[in-house]
Amino acid sequence: MKQRIITGVIAAVLFIGITLYGSWPFSLLILLLTGIGMYELLRMKGMEFTFIGGIGMILAILIALPEQWMKGLDPFSKTDAIILAVLLLLVVTVVQKNKTDYNHISFVLFSSIYVGFGFYYLLETRILENGVQLLFFILFMIWATDSGAYFVGKSMGKRKLWPVISPNKTIEGAVGGIFFSILVAIISYTVNFVEMPLVNILIVSILVGVFGQIGDLAESAFKRIYDVKDSGTLLPGHGGILDRLDSALFVFPLLHVLHLLG
């Protein structure tokens, strides 16, 4: 527990400091996290040091690049990168005479898109006009959801939520997580932390409470399939980057696709 607390405090201070500063240090941090997150997924499948794993790593980072940096590659776009990656991966299946099959290239493509766009939309939130407040508003709700689900589940949980994927999660805990997300949203509205209509804030808080937990379950499903306890070991006492940001990688793209963050 002591190691977990120390790691959490150090990581939080660094992340908050760089996030508040913004600009290119924040962009570099996001790209670094993208690379680490992609590596963790490739490592689960034993593909971290393969040629197609390298293609996936490059694709994830290109997807996560801020739009201002993408202008330097004009007319090359993120869509071009995805198409080129698909073609390259198909070429590999031919050259390696099906030693690399669709199972491998599908995993690489899916992982690149999942991790790349997850971090890209986190970055896109920060560069909005009120991005700092919005970013922390969403993160506060995600953290409240995680904490609420844990403590309510521990104290009141009886009915299992999805035992095949995550045996310790309960329905009561999931409801508690959603409640705490809504509570943080109401407090944020009351103290004018974010400038959004109350209805929008409540909608966002419910989406974060529900889909933040689905993002957590999705990551748990990955770990179950590949029989690993944590996605990585970068954060002692916490696991890997994906263990800490699995909910965020699900929530931020969803809120942007639904145009709820501006």
TrEMBL record:
Pathway in which this enzyme or protein is active: Lipid metabolism; Phospholipid metabolism; CDP-diacylglycerol biosynthesis; CDP-diacylglycerol from sn-glycerol 3-phosphate: step 3/3
Parts of the chain that traverse the membrane: 6-34, 46-65, 77-95, 102-122, 134-152, 173-191, 197-215
EC number: 2.7.7.41
The keyword Transferase appears for this protein: yes
Compartments (UniProt record): Cell membrane
Keywords: Cell membrane, Lipid biosynthesis, Lipid metabolism, Membrane, Nucleotidyltransferase, Phospholipid biosynthesis, Phospholipid metabolism, Transferase, Transmembrane, Transmembrane helix
Annotated catalysed reactions: a 1,2-diacyl-sn-glycero-3-phosphate + CTP + H(+) = a CDP-1,2-diacyl-sn-glycerol + diphosphate
Ion transport recorded as keyword: no
Predominant location: membrane
GO MF annotation list: nucleotidyltransferase activity
Domain of life assignment: Bacteria
UniProt topology in membrane: Multi-pass membrane protein
Pfam families, alphabetized: CTP_transf_1 (PF01148)
PROSITE patterns per UniProt: CDS
Family label: Belongs to the CDS family.
Protein name, UniProt field: Phosphatidate cytidylyltransferase
